[in-house]
Structure formats: structure tokens, C-alpha cells
Amino acid sequence: MALLTGKQYRASLKDGRQVFVNGELVEDVTTHPAIKPMVDAMAALYDLQHDERYKDVFGYVNEDGEIASRVYKLPETIEDLRNRREMTAAILNEVSPVIDRFGDETVTPLFVMKDRKALLDKYDTRYYENAVRWLKKLQVSNWFLTSGNTDPKGDRSKQPYQQDDPDMYTRVVEEREDGIIIRGAKFETGACYAHAAFVKPTVGSWVPENTDYAVACIVPLNSPNLRHICRAPHFDSPNGFDKPLSSQFDELDTLIVFDDVFVPWENVIFSRKPELAALIRQDLHNWAAQGFLNRAYAKADTLVGAALLVTEHTRLGAIPSIREKIAVLMGYRETIRAFIFASESEHQVSESGMIMPNLSIQNAGRVYASSNFYEMVQILRDLAGGTAVMQPDERSLRSPLTGPDVQKYFRIGSTTAEDRLKVLNLVNELTASSFAGRMCAYAMFAESPPMVQAMSLYNSFDRQGSLQRAARLAGVAA
Predict the structure, then answer these.
(1) HpaB/PvcC/4-BUDH C-terminal domain location, by residue (predicted)?
(2) What are φ and ψ of residue 163, in 5° steps?
(3) Mean pLDDT over residues 304-325, rounded?
């Protein structure tokens, strides 16, 4: 079986899924104006796999002699780990540097399940078998697997079992001979144009009363009784001039509603196992942060490029204080790059012998990239000034009534008004639009909140080595 093409991907989405935008049922997600741009972007990604330049980056021959997707290949060697970086970079370079959800990082919790066979088998041997079966299915089918992490949560001062409405966290309402019934909801990016979601628990305290919420499973996104309620789009019309990013790359976030959705046992990774959920939850980011850092690098590089363009247009690029600000952006980009390569160079071997990035370095990079992103956006906003929120639209540029004035007052030397407006619109989308606000929120929270990221770093750090060094200097026992 060959890897999916863009055309086949589009056709596969016509599967009876229930998707709602602005309160209305979407008849065809491939043509709806709010969803079509990202379907087109994902189709371009699928077609990229067939580009002669990237065939070896995206595809490999599995043990059964089939062409399979490297997006879902286990990182069994250091070459596999490097390939994951190169593959993600190819997507960010060729499709868009500002998209985040396209499957390479959302599959990585399945890597963890494959790695933790002994732990899963303690509870039910089907769990490991199901994870392996789904990995093989994804490798050959080349489906787009998204995630299902964030519950609505309701009253956040209360545990799931204490909520007035018990559905504020996704839960198992029934276990049957043939499978389980789940109820609740999850917020997820790109679910309305993905094939399946890996639903995972996010409960912090695994007390016995939360047992029903300890569930992980893979759910096809056209399942009966499953609804997608999409947030409002970040663009009004597909105008690439005025909205160069949101008109093409608005990754719709969705409230996935599980209204008593049936999940057969072969799709269940675990059910009603709070102890297992507590033991494995932290490990779920063991490979995911590599993808996050590659995305952070691409966004950082975009900020640098936009800063160079806008200061070139205003003729301020030679001023030392301006260069100093741009250098901060450059330092941010290069620091993320250093984290990527250092975590790869100092890679670790997992429990089952797979290769994973150095967790301490990777987690430090994740904390650094997410906690400093907003400040970097502020620097670009400062360099662009207020003009990036005051520019006229394309219709004003083209109108015979207003065009001459726009051409006159937005032209700077040899830089035409049209070119200047295009750059200002890009800066606006990166710093001041609703798309920019969502991008900042995603950078901060998509890889779990900052405190959780910090705890992952704390737990993966070699504290004993640092402790002993300081103890020797102090002359005390460690």
C-alpha cells in the first residue's frame, strides 16, 4: 500500500463526521470555508511525502515489505531520531512554519505505550497489544492521528468526581464485553480534519474516586455520537493579502463531545486504571517535546525574518539599538536550535531499547521556548511600531478612490506600498491579530502548562550530581 496522497486524504474525510461551525452542521469539511484552508495544507503535507526530494524522509519499507509512514515509525536508532527532526523540518519549511498539529508529536504517547510493555501487562495484556496494533495501522494507513488531552474541567478547585456535572472530565460510564462507553469532552486542535484521536487522561490526583476518569483510548473521529464543535475562525474571508497566515493556516480548535461513544476493546489503551494513569502520565512527553522544539524553532526563525524585513523597509536596520533587538530574536532562535541538537546528541536509551532525546535537555528547551515566546513577539511588535495595526486593506490599495493615497503614504523609497503592506500584514498576524493571540496561548499551554513543564524538567534532571558537587564544596554529606 502506498502512502496517502492529498487527493486521497480529502476523500477520506467524507466519512459522515458531525462537525459544527458557528452552530451549523458542516456538510463537507473539505469545502467549508473555515476548514478548507487547513485541509488544503494537510493535503499538501500528504503530497509532500510523494515528492522525490523527500520520499526517503517520509517513507520506509516495513518488516512486511510494505511502504509505511516514518511519521509513525518507532525511533529504534539514532538515525530514526534524526529523521524525525528532518521530517518535521521538511513539513515546517515546505507547508508552513506556523502550523503545529500534523501527527508527528501526537503519536509519540503510543511510543511510550510500546516502550512500557511490562507496566501495561501488569494490568491487562490487551493494552500493549492494542498500542502495537494501532502503531502498525497508522504506519501503513498513514492516517492523521491527533490528540485528545484537555478536558473542560469545570470548577478547577474540585476533583473530577466532585464536579456538579461529572462529565467535565472524560470518563468511562460502562465497561461491556465488547468495549467501553465514554462520555465527556476534550478540546483538541485539528480534530475536525483528522482521522482519529488518542484520548488520554489529564487528572492530577488519582484518588480511587477518580477511577472512571482513568481512561486512554483511540477514537475514530467519525464515530457515532461524537460531535465536533469548532471555535470561531480567525479570519472572515480567505484573503491571503490581508491575512497571510490565518487565511491559510488557522488550525481550528475543536470541542470533541463524546455523547456515550462506544470504543471497542481493541481501541482501548487502558480503562479504569488510576494507578497506571498516575505511573505513565509524565512519560507521555518523552518524545513529544522534540516536535515542539522543532516547531518553536520554525516560529522563532519566522520572527527573525519578519523583523529583518520590517526594519529593512523602514531603513532602520543599520541602527545599533535596532540590531540589538533583532539579535535577541536571533539568540532565541539559536538557543532553541542548541537544545534540539544537544538533546539529540546526548540521547538516551529507553526501557525497551528505543532512542529518545535527552529528557533533561529537551525539557529545559521546552520550558525556555514556551516561557520566552511572548517576549519575542513583543520585540517584533516594538520593531514594527503602531503601523502594523493601522494599515489599510487590499481593497483600499486597489481602489481608484483611495489607492493613490495608499501608494503615496506607504511607499518608502524603492519599497512599494504593496510590498510594505504585505510585510505589515505578516507582522500583524504574528503580533496583533487573534491568530497571534492564539499562537501565543498555544506556545504557552499546548505542551501542558508552564508549571507542569517545569516539573517535568525537575523530575528528569540529574539532581544528585548537582547536589554532590555543592556538598563537596561545602564540606557536608550529600
Answers:
(1) 285-475
(2) -65, 145
(3) 97
